[in-house]
């Protein structure tokens, strides 16, 4: 834009502002102030969220002497990667990573398949005690799983379906220590956060016009075929979102993993044991008189935490588009 055009635009602006008795200038100042305030609010929120992660990243590359050096704040003076090697050794990282990925992926797929069918049923069909069963879904969301931990332990420790096993063999089956109970709970919509996934999927299907299904029925599609070929393709955003939630929550879960998957090494189980493993390593392997200091123990644990969440960050980078689409397309319709 040349100088003359800029001058014309400048004069035109002030002429329009004069005609509106200063309203145009006040409006522009107000909009500019809102943008400035919004910028600082968003910057502050992002800083509060990201600052602890950046702090853990810098600490993970510090040697032990840097932790107690008041002059070292964010940039390590003695750069080292030994913290990552120790954390990987104590967690048996690569084997544990494969186990965690397999369990999280299979559980997430099973949960989404079952919850999609149930959520679609709640959204589209009428059946006896529908409100009662949906109230039970709400209870699954509200009631924390710790309240039924004793019942779950006894149920799968002395597992018997309708007394058949005890009638045939004379004793019950101990399913504790295997992944089978957790897969059974996930298949029965009682796994980790299953109630939330049912609710989200139900709300999404309720927002889809029923005319789409009616048109499919007119064309000769059955209920199952309509669900698979018409409804599921439209539900990709919400299914992606629910899969990410299921995968991430299972990846970091410690309650169900310790209760049912204790014999399978997972990252969520191995991470809290880093401090104990570090003390054993220093006292028995390196023959130190004392164990690790509190600061150094927390440093190695922080390094292990970063190694646990790194695959989740990579997953989100690839799936963020579908996640954002699900948030924008899912509404609340009662």
TrEMBL record:
Keywords: Cell membrane, Membrane, Transmembrane, Transmembrane helix, Transport. It holds the Pfam family BPD_transp_1. InterPro entries: MetI-like, MetI-like_sf. One of its GO terms (cellular component) is plasma membrane. The chain crosses the membrane at residues 36-54, 101-120, 132-156, 180-200, 235-252, 295-319. GO terms for biological process: transmembrane transport. Gene3D superfamilies: MetI-like. Residues 97-318 form the ABC transmembrane type-1 domain. It is a multi-pass membrane protein. It is found in: Cell membrane. Belongs to the binding-protein-dependent transport system permease family. This is Carbohydrate ABC transporter permease. It comes from Candidatus Galacturonatibacter soehngenii.
